[in-house]
Automatic annotation (TrEMBL):
Organism: Prosthecobacter algae
Superkingdom: Bacteria
PANTHER family associated with the record: CATION EFFLUX SYSTEM (ACRB_ACRD_ACRF FAMILY), PTHR32063
Signal peptide: none
InterPro entries: AcrB_DN_DC_subdom, Acrflvin-R
Protein name listed in UniProt: Cobalt-zinc-cadmium resistance protein CzcA
Length: 426
């Protein structure tokens, strides 16, 4: 293949952004498509899986697979596993976003197999140890001495030459010693054949498995895995004792989501308790806590606007956003309580407190939004982690700022008029 074929399509600038020759920045997904097209034009019929070396090695170390999601087929018979893996791969490739698939070390290589004939060995009085010793010396090699050169010692190993190691007829004529001291050719007492054997037999939980590496493009991993699971169950029939499951980094995603289902409610409950202890009022604590859903709606809308899936990075952004929204609510409600404690009427305290705190809230929102803006627009290394966090925080702060200034004061005025005033200013 022409080594300069990729140069006709792309070049790399110092900021680690791929550009076309006219200088237009293109995405990594588009880059993968161009590289794949360039390679297939030169070497057609290949399966190309585009990834990054460091990411691939981390996936292999942490999840045992070189791709984010991997479909594992388990069973006993290797031939049946290969057949099922082929059907599963065809099913996955037909799903939107699953066009890039690759087998993980599947296939067979021809290997020399020497099968002893027990009856012939008894007839010619040949011991099994002698046969094993001959095969080991001929193919693996056997140390017969030491070569001394000054202070260096090197082992002398004897074995068949490379061209004779693949000559099956020549191996049948190897001399074999019998128990009574005679000599016999290897052919009469052993069958030497060339048989296909698996390249690698992978095991997991004491069971054989075959893996299909998947590079999901243009959609979220969780949605793809759910659709692929249902489609495989409908189209592929698994015999008894054979089954499949998705693993890789997708498993880590599931574990992280399970942890978040515990951590996030506990964190929100702790925030609510702290607010109640500060204000000593359930209604005001609930009112301040309403800033959280007001902010979350903006984060969800921002993710939808940028066509980003929900990830663990986005979940971390929602947690940070909840804290910022609660602080803004505390700042507003505590100042209104302070004005009422000074003797102001309810409506007057609500209007003046909202207008007075307008500028601090806008400054807080602008500082946080502008601070996260470079992360939201990042395209370099780590951008896939930075963008969801920044997008959620920016979108949530914008909606939280305006909705808090509109909704919370109105609800405060309405709730306090319905109940007996109880002021506990900070």
């Amino acid at each position: 293949m022409n080594p300069n074929v990729a140069d006709t399509y792309l070049m790399l600038n110092p900021r680690d952004q791929w550009r076309k020759e006219n200088g237009t920045i293109i995405s990594k997904e588009r880059l993968g498509e161009l590289m794949r097209k360039a390679l297939l034009d030169q070497v057609p019929g290949q399966n190309i899986l585009v990834t990054q070396p460091i990411q691939m090695r981390f996936n292999e170390i942490m999840a045992g697979a070189r791709a984010d999601p991997v479909c594992k087929v388990f069973g006993d018979c290797y031939d049946e596993l290969e057949r099922l893996a082929g059907e599963v791969r065809t099913a996955i490739a037909s799903i939107c976003g699953g066009g890039e698939t690759e087998f993980d070390s599947i296939g067979k290589n021809p290997m020399i197999e020497i099968q002893p004939d027990r009856k012939a060995m008894c007839k010619f009085n040949v011991h099994a140890d002698e046969l094993n010793r001959l095969v080991e010396t001929a193919l693996a090699g056997k140390e017969v001495g030491t070569f001394i050169e000054g202070n260096r010692r090197s082992s002398i190993v004897v074995r068949l030459a490379e061209d004779r190691r693949t000559d099956l007829e020549g191996m049948k004529r190897l001399a074999l010693r019998t128990e009574d001291g005679g000599m016999l050719a290897l052919g009469p007492v052993a069958k030497i054949v060339l048989v296909p054997q698996p390249v690698q037999i992978a095991r997991e939980d004491t069971q054989r498995r075959v893996s299909i590496l998947i590079s999901v493009r243009g959609r979220d991993t969780e949605g793809f895995v759910e659709e692929a699971t249902n489609f495989i169950r409908e189209t592929v029939t698994f015999p008894d004792g054979y089954y499949f499951e998705f693993g890789g980094q997708f498993k880590n995603l599931q574990k992280a989501k399970a942890r978040l289902l515990i951590v996030v409610p506990l964190a929100l409950a702790l925030i609510y308790v702290l607010i109640f202890l500060s204000f000593g009022s359930l209604r005001q604590a609930t009112l301040i806590f309403m800033c959280v859903p007001l902010a979350v709606t903006g984060g969800i809308f921002a993710l939808h606007l940028r066509a980003m899936p929900f990830t663990i990075s986005a979940a971390v952004g929602f947690i940070a956003l909840s804290g910022i929204a609660v602080l803004n609510g505390i700042m507003l409600i505590s100042f209104i309580n302070q004005l009422r404690g000074e003797g102001r009427e309810l409506r007057e305290a609500v209007v003046e407190g909202t207008l007075t705190r307008l500028r601090p809230k806008l400054i807080t929102a602008l500082v946080a939004s502008l601070g996260f803006l470079p992360m939201a627009l990042a395209t370099g290394a780590g951008a896939e982690v930075q963008r969801p966090i920044a997008t959620v925080v920016i979108g949530g702060i914008l909606t939280s700022t305006f909705l808090t200034l509109l909704v919370v004061p109105v609800l405060y005025d309405w709730i306090e008029r319905k109940t007996k005033p109880r002021i506990n200013a900070l």
